[in-house]
Design a protein that fits this description.
The complex is a heterodimer of chains A (429) and B (337). With 429 residues, chain A is mainly α. Chain A is built from 18 helices and 3 strands. Chain A has a 3-stranded antiparallel beta sheet with strand order 2-1-3, with helices on both faces. The radius of gyration of chain A is 31 Å and the shape is flat. The two termini of chain A are 28 Å apart. The relative contact order of chain A is 0.10. By secondary structure, chain B is mainly α. Chain B has 13 helices and 4 strands. The longest helix of chain B is centred in the first third of the chain and has 37 residues, at 47-83. Chain B starts with 8 loop residues before the first strand and ends in a 6-residue tail after the last helix. The chains are: A mainly alpha (429), B mainly alpha (337).
Amino acid sequence: MREFASPHVVTQPGPAPFGEDTQLKRNLLARHRTGTIWHALFLLALMISIIALTALIYNILDQTFGLVAIEVKMDPRELAQDGKPLEELTAKQLIKLLETYVSKGVLRRLKAEQPLEQRDREELLSLVYERVVQPKIVKSWSLTDSLLRRRGVEMEAAQKYPSAQLEFRSWLNPSFITRPQSSDPQMAGVRTAILGSLWTIAITILAAFPLGVGAAIYLEEYAADNTLNRIIQTNINNLAGVPSIIYGMLGLAIFVRALEPLTSGALIGGAVDPTTANGRTVMSAGLTLALLVLPLLIVNAQEAIRAVPSSLREAGYALGATKWQVIWHHVFPNALPGILTGTILSISRAMGETAPLIVVGASTYIVYDPYSPFSKFTTLPVQIYQWTARPQQEFRNLAAAAIVVLLVLLLSLNAAAILMRNRFSRRLI
Amino acid sequence: MAIPSLTCVKSLWNREGGFLLATALSAKSLTRRTTAAPPELRKKPRPLELLIQVFLFACGAVSILTTLGIVYVLGSEAWLFFRSPEVDLVEFFTTTSWVPAVGQFGIWSLVNATMMTTTFAMIVALPLGLASAIYLSEYASPAVRNVLKPILEILAGIPTVVYGYFALTFMTPLLRSIFGRDVVEIYNTASAGLVMGILILPLVSSMSEDALSAVPRSLREAAYALGATRLETAVRIVVPGALSGITAAFILAVSRAVGETMIVAIAAGAGPTFTFNPFKAAETMTGHIVRISGGDLSYDSIDYDSIFAIGLMLFLMTLALNLISRAIMHRFREVYE
């Protein structure tokens, strides 16, 4: 329709077919003016979504980096020995520092965890920072403020926090990814949350992939067109529209409560984790998410299976293969790239889910990494939610940094799916 | 369970001849022939094949079990809730105060907040979504489409918790700077609703665009031939032709907004309040469920049962909306030959 839709041609000056009919011309002009205005409005509507996306990303990055005012209990410069700054001290000197400045009780506890002499220099240094220097972020500013209003920020810091030091901080840094959760925003990291997410997703894949592909194969290859199979198909489409929080409640009642012996690991025995809060484990969360993504996965897999040409099946049958041989050796391998693409997309959906996991019982605060399907867990989105829900600005910064981590993870998942799709479509041609 | 052996291609292995023989047999001819055929030509019983089929059927049946599970769980726990002495069914559906501590369970404060956020979301998502769809389907050149569509897809792929963060740290301060700090509370339904609109916009736009592109080209060409401008063609010919699809998209969008959780849990406020002021904090149904179940919830408390009653309401509302959307799609679809 684009070739025909060139309204400007009509408005071109020239011998009009209707001669000097000014009324018609004026009418036409008015219609085209309306057309142009609405064209601009339609484009504007689309631009608004682009603006929203830009604002969202800007807002997150704005909070991820910025100036912070840090107050210390003990100036590191005072801790320098023999003219050497704190960073260059040897392990022995660091132990001595710890023994002088840290209270007896704390020291005893630290020694009980691991004797100081056995720890390496890096660890001792961070201990000195944590226990002796005790830096504390008293205020943080956004990236925009830090860059454009630097002078104002400096004045504000000097006025309100005279003893504090102003420092540029990237909340997203390597130690943020490797540190466990902590109540001190400077020490907090997302390792527990990332591992929790990975454990949960692993369970989700293990449960949802075979079930989803099995159901798709049944519906596409076996199911006759009868009432029962139509009900299954309609039902799958309807399940895709159920709010995710409802799945969370299903998971809470079925996996956490009814199947508690199974999901807490009590039935398997030996694997029982004393710290688990009943059935609120990685296992329950993974299974809940599996149910959640199952409809999506089935629909995607069905499309992939439908795309396999039927000539392939007929050739298989003609050679005497049984139905399952045809499916397993011909249909499935050909549909696999499409199925995997759909699976990755479902997984990225599961990765970003928050509400069902909160209902199933993600832990609000754990510092230990999950190490089995029966561990307590938290996931990246849940961690973001909990940090966002806190009133202090520093936790908002942490949440922003965690969002960057989550978005990067999701982006790489989606990129993998797109790459796979492109490769697949090229092969078919 | 039906075993689809009828009229499918059967293959037979002729042992003596040693070559392959493939024949298409209908079920009727199969039964007739097996009586006459020599034993080596009879259909071999294949228990493993049957077993695989049973397993695959079981996979398909999991979805049915999921639905039954949802209905059973929500129903039975909600039944416990409605049966308990503190709860009065009439009060539940007619009063506006939800204070479990003193035994007041009036669902309307939660439903009202849900409707407020949904309304705001629709104010953003419906016009913008439809306008974007019209632009993408009727105006944009393929090159422009290839740039703009992925942006909408990215918007659709961002986790809702990120939108919640966006609502709290961007939209709320924005509203507060426009309308004044004393008017707009830190947690408010307007901010949550507006951001939810951005979240739902891609859904409306992509479903509407599908409906618009399903309208055949000949209709547009006829309109152009009659001298219609591009706008007139789009608005008077294409949009009415795709109306069923667009309506279905709108209803599905409402359903999404009603069930949306994280944005309202973060930005709309904690604590059920019955208010029509969009700048005041109010708790939606989903937000309430998240807040109550986020703590350590005892299984025998009335709080635990109450979230299932709210969940049942939520499930029925979204299910009804989804079914209506689907019915409109099928019933009123213009069939173009």
